[in-house]
Amino acid sequence: MHEDIKTILLTQEQIAARVQEMGRQITEDYQGRELIVVVLLKGAAWFATDLTRAIDMPVRVDFMVASSYGNGTSTSGSVKVKLDISENIAGKDVLVIDDIIDSGVTFAAISEMLRQCRPASLKTAALCDKAERRVNGLEADYVGFKIPDEFVVGYGLDYAGDYRNLPYIGVLKPAVYARK
Ligand code: IMP
Ligand code: MG
Fold first, then answer.
1. Could you tell me if the CB of 30 is within 6 A of ligand 1?
2. Which of 40, 57, 118, 139 registers the highest number of CB atoms within 10 A of its CB?
């Protein structure tokens, strides 16, 4: 275990098993349709590459860079798009994928932007969900794990750009925030 991690919340095995289940569910739900997933970079890249490979139907993949976080551990409240999608999503079934839903501000803002492109449907998927932190009542359509209100890193999730490549999801030692 990395020295900056207090506890492992989700092991590599737990994540892999849940992602397979989510892939099966999405495959069932979108039967006979064509899905475009919009991956919110950078954090959702790890989850999305595993999830899309667990979906057994045609899937197109697009990316967006949106950020609301500075280098702290809570949202700044406004979402900026730094890289927009390149696919035409009008009339298509769209699934937006993020690593974690926290305040809900990111999914709310991105969904509102993408709806202006008139997709046939628009849903959201997040590997982790900190439901207690929600400010807008938003629920993701697909959630991997409901987790407690602690700052977690790994499997794409970062603190100030670090720890994304940890294969598990762990709680960061609070001492790390004080140090940086
Ligand atoms: P929201 O807009 O508050 O729902 O936050 C979503 C974004 O916040 C995610 O894409 C993450 O980048 C970031 N985030 C929220 N909680 C955590 C966490 O515990 N660890 C790392 N990133 C987080
Ligand atoms: Mg993010």
1. no
2. 40
Q: What is the 3-state secondary structure of 86-106?
A: CCCCCCCEEEEEEEEECCCHH
Q: For the segment 80-105, what is each residue's pLDDT rounded down to a tens digit?
A: 899 999 999 999 999 999 999 999 99
Query: pLDDT digits over 48-61, tens only?
Result: 999 999 999 999 99
| pTM assigned to the model | 0.94
pLDDT band at 76 (very low <50, low <70, confident <90, very high): low
Distance between CA atoms of residues 46 and 27, nearest Å:
19
For residue 152 and ligand 1, the question of a CB distance below 6 A is answered with yes
Please identify, in words, the CATH class of the domain defined by 13-147: alpha beta
Please say if 129 is a catalytic residue: no
Hunting for tokens 């892939």 — which residue is that?
23
The residue whose CB lies within 8 Å of the most ligand 1 atoms, and thus the one to mutate among 10, 65, 76, 99, is 99
Distance 31 CA to ligand 1 centre (A): 30
- For residue 98 and ligand 1, the question of a CB distance below 6 A is answered with yes
